[in-house]
Known about the structure:
Blueprint: E1 2-4, E2 17-19, E3 25-27, E4 36-37, E5 42-49, E6 57-58, E7 65-71, E8 77-87, E9 95-103, E10 105-108, E11 116-121, E12 136-143, E13 154-157, H1 159-167, E14 172-178, E15 191-193, E16 200-206, E17 210-217, E18 220-221, E19 230-231, E20 237-243, E21 251-260, E22 268-276, E23 280-284, E24 295-303, E25 315-319, E26 329-331, E27 340-341, E28 347-352, E29 359-365, E30 375-378, E31 384-385, E32 395-397, E33 405-409, E34 415-425, E35 434-440, E36 446-450, E37 454-455, E38 460-465, E39 473-480, E40 486-489, E41 496-500, E42 506-514, E43 523-527, E44 529-530, E45 534-537, E46 557-562, E47 568-575, E48 581-583, E49 591-595, E50 601-611, E51 616-626
Parallel strand pairs: 19-25, 27-35, 37-44
Antiparallel strand pairs: 1-30, 2-3, 4-16, 5-6, 5-8, 7-8, 7-15, 8-14, 9-13, 9-16, 10-15, 11-12, 11-14, 17-18, 17-20, 20-23, 21-22, 21-24, 24-25, 26-28, 28-33, 29-32, 29-34, 30-31, 34-35, 36-38, 38-41, 39-40, 39-42, 42-43, 45-46, 46-49, 47-48, 47-50, 50-51
Amino acid sequence: MRRRLGIRAVAAGTAAVALGLGGVLVPAPPAAADSVVREAPQLSLAYTDAQAPLTAHPVAAGEDLPLGAWLDDAGTAHTSRVYATFDLAGFAAAHVLKATLSFGESRAEACAQRAIEVWRTGPRTDGITWRNAPAEKQLLGTVGGSQTCPAPFLQIDLTAAAADAAAAKRPTLSIELRVPATDEANTSLGRRLSGSRGIRLYPTYNTPPGTPTELFNEYQPCATEKPYPYVGSTTPALGAVLHDADAGDTTLTGHFAVWPVGHREQRTEFTQGSMGNGFEGNGHVPAGLLADGGTYAWQVRGGDGTDTSAWTRPCYFHVDATRPAAAPVVTSPNYPAGQLTPGGSPAQFTFTANGVADVAAYQYTWAPDLGVGPVWSTGDHGVPQWHDPFSGPGYVRADTLGGSASVSLFPPDSGPQTLSVRTFDRAFNASAVTTYRVFVGDTSPVVTPDPPNARLGAPLTLHLAPNPNAGSVDSYTVRVGYAEPRTLPAAADGTASMAVELTGPTQIEVRSHSTSGWVSSAYRRFATVDTSPTITSDVYPEDTGTPVDAGGVGVTGTFTFAPTVPDVASYTYSFDWGPETTVTPGADGTARVEWTPDTGGQHLVYAYQTTADGTVYDAYYYAFDVS
């Protein structure tokens, strides 16, 4: 896609803003971020037994876990605690919004009186025994009683602990489940935790947006050092690609800040909502913040409704919203305005700024209009593909700011031609247009067809010669009908020949090319193909406009019809508009008929030929005089 520089279409979803305190433009509240719930990987799960204080008890998958006081089959009393460690490395860059520890009971009594404490412990994943257990660091909470017994679903909020671990970039969270010390020896409060349910930690988190990239102001790349670019608007588009790793955050909010260089205390923030995640989006500076002629800095950060990214580095630009005050002056030493010029050589033009001090470049064209001016293109994800807008065809830079420029141009054709020229300043503001009208003489080549009238199936030779005004011709471009143009080299004298075979009425166009680069105006001819037969007579020659005494009343003449197309099957003829008669040609393709006039004066015979496939061709009308 291509768009004109400086066009500032407002993106869909722009939030309404109002001026707030402290130079902040306050938008409508953004949508909440897309939060993700994911189970934290469990690195270890074990229980301990006071009856076997030096024995570790890692738990197999699906195995129930004893907790608190319990009796074995022999009636021996045991006391157990449960330990689990969870991997939080995958949440180190995330903002943990909530974390829930979930587990269930497979066997229990006195559930209404239950209390299960959850402690954060030191990091340990193996070798845990009653006497060699990790130290209790912090009581995270207590699971109280329930009416359901055993309770298949119990949970406790561990948000603070998980968030602290993620913020501190601790890779694990280790916990202990135990019955409070006052009841730990009470077998009526002991229970079994469900092995099938397991002990699971479910963090709900949000990944903060990354720092925006691909910074552009009015589609020009961000500049952090001088020289700063110029923008032609006091409400320019500030562009950036916002990023967020959470797939559900398809749109983000751009938080922009802008301030006059040297006056950071005048910093103003505004927002642009509904910017696509991973795509270039624009925030438009609200009206009234920028002054024409000022120099400004800006930066941006992305927000997902919950978190914001870091601010980008500042970008800088100048504001120039004033178009050049005068149209340029156009002069030419060899193509005077309003006068006829023979052509054949390029026109030398000089453009001057007409007193405008900040003219950066000139745009020119022979076309009806100059178009929209400099353009930019977009690449993947809508990122502008910036290039020097004055390096393309139809532009020339001024030799210095406010200076002049010279170009050498070939008029596109003969006749009246108008060159249109305007200037652009550094902010791509355009001046009014100056038009320069010249009259170019005909330089089309001389083309001689041989024969003058083409015959079907017979070659037509085009003899080409240069126009005296075309200069030294080195080649010709010939186009026959809709075929691709063909280039012919010219001989030393500038001539060339080309044979063509026509099958019907055809447009022929020829242009010459000179060593100076001049391309001539076009020779154009609509060539027809003569498909009528030839008619000759031994006594009555065709009327050429000169009186000839031939034959006479009662004198019989022979008329011969000869083919001009292949495979003629018959000739149909008529004398003096009488009934038509059809004859079959002989082996040589001709047919002869005799006719005797009964009156003097001018007479006429016409004939046309028909081929074996039934195609009927044009008639030839043969007029003659009878003395």
